Amino acid sequence: MSDEKSPAPAPAPAPHAHAPGEPHMVDCVKLGRRAEGLPKPPLKGDFGKRVYESVSKEAWRMWLDHSKMLVNEFRLDLMSENGQKVWITEAEKFLFGEGSALPPEFKPQAEK
């Protein structure tokens, strides 16, 4: 028996780990395909981590475009707790659920 210790095994790579300089890739829940992910979580907390791990850059841009319309149509104050709650709820529906509905009075620019 030897007193020499064998080196500790290398830690297993994180799921979907990427090499430095390579884009972060995700299996995007919104697009239903593998795509480039966000470079970092877009928000703090569990929801931001969940978005980082399973929403692509493209889907996040789609949400931001949709959310601008929601903020304007619902006149959401994103500095208020209630406004943030509505925004996160709609983000959850848009990215992970049945989709975020348009406000009933919303008319796209061409129809106004």
Oligomer: single chain
Approximate strand percentage:
5-15%
Number of continuous helical runs: 3
**Biggest pleated-sheet summary:** 2 strands, antiparallel
Category by helix and strand content: mainly alpha
Mean pLDDT: 83
Total beta strand runs: 2
Termini, distance in Å? 84 Å
Helix percent reads 25-40%
**CATH domain class of the domain at 25-99:** Mainly Alpha
Low-confidence stretches: 11-16
Give the strand order of the largest sheet, numbering strands 1, 2, ... along the chain.
Answer: 1-2
**Element pattern in H and E:** EEHHH
Cα shape? globular
Radius of gyration: 20 Å
CATH superfamily of the domain at 25-99: Fe(II) trafficking protein YggX
CATH architecture of the domain at 25-99: Orthogonal Bundle
Write the SSE topology.
Layout: E1 25-28, E2 33-36, H1 45-54, H2 57-74, H3 81-96
Antiparallel strand pairs: 1-2
Helix pairs in contact: 2-3
How would you characterize the overall build of this protein?
Helix content is 39%, strand content 7%. It has three helices and two strands; from the N terminus they run ββααα. The termini are far apart. It has 112 residues and is mainly alpha-helical. It has a domain of 75 residues: Orthogonal Bundle (YggX-like), CATH 1.10.3880. A two-stranded antiparallel sheet has the order 1-2.
